[in-house]
Each structure stands twice: as C-alpha cells, then as structure tokens.
Amino acid sequence: MRTIALILTGCIAIEHLYFLWMEMFAWETAGKKAFGDVLPEELFKPTKRLAANQGLYNGFLAGGLIWTFFISDTTWKVYISIFFLGCVAIAGISGITGNYCNHIGLIKLNNETCYPTKTYITESTVYKKIILKFQE
Asked: Which one is predicted more confidently, 76 or 114?
C-alpha cells in the first residue's frame, strides 16, 4: 500500500511539473492543444501571463510533493503529503464544479464558453471586442 501511495504521489508531482511547463512556457502551443475547446484562439496570447501564474502555483504543488520523497521522519512525511495532495484535490474539485472560468478571471456565458470579465479588459483590445459583442 505504501508503494502504491508513493507511485501515485510521484505521478501527481510529474503531472504538475507538466502543467508548470505548459502554462509557463508553452501556453500558446501546448496550451492551445489542451484548452483549445475552452478558449478561443485569439485569447491565448493575452492570457499568457494568467496561465504563467497558474503554472507557478502548479510548480509549488509539484515541489511540495517532490519534497515529501526527501523527508525521513515518517509522521512528518505523511502530514506534508496529505497537505499537498489535499491542495491538489481541492483545486481539482474546484476546477470540475463549473467555477473554472471564475478562477482564471473569465465569465461563463450561455453555460458553454468562458469569456473575460471587465477586470481583465485592460489586458488587450481582444477582451474589449468580446465583451462588447456580448453586451449587445
């Protein structure tokens, strides 16, 4: 059972390292492949900084999970593992409950597509065009 827990923790850490890479360094390439059905293509460039920030947080989660492999005290190792795996679980639950758009500064219109909120309009004229289109 312990081995399975270690393997799953390692897999989750590797997955979050991938998220870090994709969101911080490959948002306009790999990010389009992963989120192309959620965001219109013209929003990848203006949301690059938002994605990079998310990638940084995924890096913190990966770092915490990787750290658990170097903790020698069993009790401390379990507590730190539970904390970081709990953070991953809460983020995952939040993402699949329909609040994904709100977390990245977007609103959901017609229960289908995420669009930028007025908070992020100053980021790009693309935002202005989209908001104006849906305010008509």
From this structure: 76
pLDDT band at 35 (very low <50, low <70, confident <90, very high): confident
Report the distance separating Cα 49 and Cα 116, nearest Å.
14
> Position of tokens 């965001």?
39
Helix (H) or strand (E) run with residue 107 in it: strand 106-109
Cα distance between residue 21 and residue 133, in whole Å: 33
pLDDT of the residue at 132: 47
Which are the contacts of 20, defined by CB distance < 8 A and separation ≥ 6?
55, 56, 58, 59, 62
Please give the structure tokens belonging to residue 79: 């507590």
Burial class (CB in 10 A: 0-12, 13-18, 19+), 16: buried
Asked whether the whole model's pTM tops 0.85, one would answer no
* Whole-number Å distance between alpha carbons of 37 and 43: 12
Place of tokens 């590797």: 14
